[in-house]
């Protein structure tokens, strides 16, 4: 028995080194992207600190499952999710995103605050904001001289903000360009619910309907800016991939080749002891995996 314990103790540093290698490799990879002018990172963003903070979150032990989130996912998916976070200059320490494991695949999903931070840093965007329209409030729009839908007024009733999903009539987002031109996007609650029905985040949507409604309308409003932006392809790819991660299982069900296509679009991070590979059980994604409740880290108290 003592020999088994001793062997377990000897294996602990090795396992820790493997995990720390992921952090080091990802940090080096993203830093190289910066040095090669492939992406721009804000001066006040520390790649190493952000990845290290995420690492600590991912290695926290779930006492119910007796394991950490990092140990629940493949090394390659952990590395890619950390890379997506760092490319967008986001931090779980600031509640700008969280990590979710579907089956054994880890993904990074932006929070409401994270989406705002990313879009505000994009070329040509001066500011953006979103609000929820509650039952009983007066919300008016009009067409401007360019024939575009424009914000007119929103008469707020603070007593109407009950926090209940059933009391939300819709949400809107305004994106303002550097030249002062504003673009309005409005979604009814039915449209928002349709979007939610396609995602894997039902628990979060039901718990935080107000913030998730804002996040949904921001994502829709930002699509045109994201895909017509002059920002780097690596950043845009990470932004789009992170936005779509919550719909990942549905896309795999509809298109079994998605997993292969997605890997081809990612910057690889090489590990000597384990080369990236596509596993048959991922391509043949089973129906029961689609029904599993995802495990998340970084969104324990307030994912927004």
From TrEMBL:
Comp. bias regions, Basic and acidic residues: 254-294
**Region annotation (Disordered) ranges:** 1-20, 254-304
Q: In what ranges is there compositional bias, type Polar residues? A: 1-15
Q: Per its UniProt record, what InterPro entries does this chain match?
A: RecT_fam
**Which residue ranges run through the membrane?**
none
Pfam families given in the database record: RecT
Query: Which GO biological process categories is it annotated with?
Result: DNA metabolic process
Q: Which GO terms describe its molecular function?
A: DNA binding
> Which protein, by its recorded name, is this?
Recombinational DNA repair protein RecT (Prophage associated)
Q: Which organism is it from?
A: Jeotgalibacillus alimentarius
């Amino acid at each position: 028995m003592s020999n088994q314990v001793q062997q377990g103790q000897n294996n602990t540093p090795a396992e820790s080194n493997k995990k720390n290698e992921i952090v080091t490799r990802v940090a080096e990879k993203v830093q190289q992207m910066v040095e090669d002018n492939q992406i721009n990172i804000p001066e006040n963003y520390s790649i190493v600190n952000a990845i290290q903070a995420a690492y600590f979150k991912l290695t926290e032990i779930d006492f119910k499952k007796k394991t950490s989130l990092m140990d629940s996912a493949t090394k390659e998916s952990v590395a890619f999710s950390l890379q997506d976070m760092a490319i967008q200059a986001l931090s779980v320490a600031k509640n700008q995103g969280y990590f979710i494991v579907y089956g054994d695949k880890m993904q990074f999903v932006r929070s409401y605050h994270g989406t705002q931070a990313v879009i505000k840093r994009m070329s040509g965007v001066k500011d953006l904001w979103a609000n929820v329209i509650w039952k009983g409030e007066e919300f008016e729009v009009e067409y401007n001289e360019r024939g575009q839908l424009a914000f007119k007024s929103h008469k707020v009733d603070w007593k109407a903000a009950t926090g209940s999903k059933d009391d939300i009539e819709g949400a809107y987002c305004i994106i303002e360009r550097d030249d002062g031109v504003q673009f309005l996007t409005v979604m009814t609650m039915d449209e928002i619910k349709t979007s939610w029905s396609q995602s894997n985040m039902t628990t979060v949507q039901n718990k935080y309907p107000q913030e998730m409604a804002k996040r949904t309308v921001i994502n829709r409003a930002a699509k045109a800016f994201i895909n017509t932006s002059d920002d780097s392809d690596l950043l845009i790819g990470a932004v789009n991939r992170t936005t779509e991660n919550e719909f990942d299982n549905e896309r795999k069900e509809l298109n079994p080749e998605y997993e292969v296509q997605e890997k081809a679009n990612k910057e690889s991070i090489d590990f000597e002891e384990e080369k990236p590979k596509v596993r048959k059980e991922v391509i043949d994604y089973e129906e029961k995996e689609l029904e599993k409740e995802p495990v998340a880290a970084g969104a324990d108290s307030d994912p927004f």
